[in-house]
Amino acid sequence: MIVMKFGGSSVGDAERIRTVAGIVGAFAEREGIPTVVVSAMQGVTDALIRAAEAASRRDNGTLHRTIAELYSRHEEAAAEVAPPGERDALLAEVHALIREFENLCAAVGVLGELTPRGLDAVASFGERLSARLVAAALRHEGYAARALEASGFIVTDARHGAASPLWEPTRERTREAVLPLLSEGTIPVITGFIGATPEGVVTTLGRGGSDFSASVVAASLDADEIWIWTDVDGVMTADPRIVPEARTLPRLSYAEAAELSYFGARVIHPKTVLPAVERGIPIRIKNTFNPEGPSTLITSSTPEGSSTIKAITAIKGLSLVTVEGRGMIGVPGIAAKVFSAVAQEGISVLMISQSSSEQNICFTIRSAESARAITALKEAFALELAAKNVDRIWAEDGMAIVAAVGQGMRRTPGIAAKLFGALGKAGINVVSIAQGSSEFNISLVVSEAQVEDAVRAIHREFDLGREG
Ligand code: ADP
Ligand code: ASP
Ligand code: MG
Question: 77 with 222, same domain?
Answer without folding.
Answer: yes
